[in-house]
Amino acid sequence: MADRITVTLHHLVSLMDSYADEMLRERHGVSFSQFQFLSAVAELQPVDITTLARCLFVTKAAVSKRVPSLVADGWIVAEDDPHHGRRVLLTLTPGALQLVITAGGGLDDQFTALFADPRLGAEGIDVAQLNHQLETLMELVTEKGIPE
């Protein structure tokens, strides 16, 4: 393991993503990538493709390309926005919403349990405090902007 926080954080997130992907595939038949997409729609619905792309940090083309298969698989409903001619609004089907709730809760439970491991100290890690600190770090990084 490297002595640099940047490398350690990146490695941790990569391991967590891999674990989440394996768990979601085994228990729910979806990839972590699909779950992230559905979770973002759940948070924002009804959501247009442009807003969803911004939220997921991908292009509108990437979102547009993915939508038809999720519609065909019964996860998403895509409808024309009655107020904007070319805008498409996305919502989750009831089954997809249940998947996001159930699978998301399972992932949270699995990761939260790790923070209570005694190897992290007698009291483990305060999950609420850690979440707040991570959110603050994301805001601080966002404030810095992207270097040119």
**Low-confidence regions:** none
Q: Could you tell me the number of beta strands?
A: 3
**What Rg, in angstroms, do the CA atoms define?**
18 Å
- Tell me which oligomeric state these chains represent: single chain
Q: In which range does the helix fraction lie?
A: 55-70%
Structure at a glance:
This protein has 148 residues and is mainly α. 66% of the residues lie in helices and 8% in strands.
Structure description:
The protein starts with a helix and ends with a helix. The longest helix is centred in the first third of the chain and has 24 residues, at 5-28. The relative contact order is 0.10. With 148 residues, it is mostly helical. A three-stranded antiparallel sheet has the order 1-3-2. It is built from six helices and three strands.
List the helices and strands and how they pair.
Blueprint: H1 5-28, H2 32-44, E1 47-48, H3 49-56, H4 60-72, E2 76-80, E3 88-92, H5 94-114, H6 127-144
Antiparallel strand pairs: 1-3, 2-3
Helix pairs in contact: 1-5, 2-5, 3-4
Descriptors for this entry?
148 residues; 3-stranded antiparallel sheet; 66% helix; 6 helices; 8% strand; globular; mainly alpha
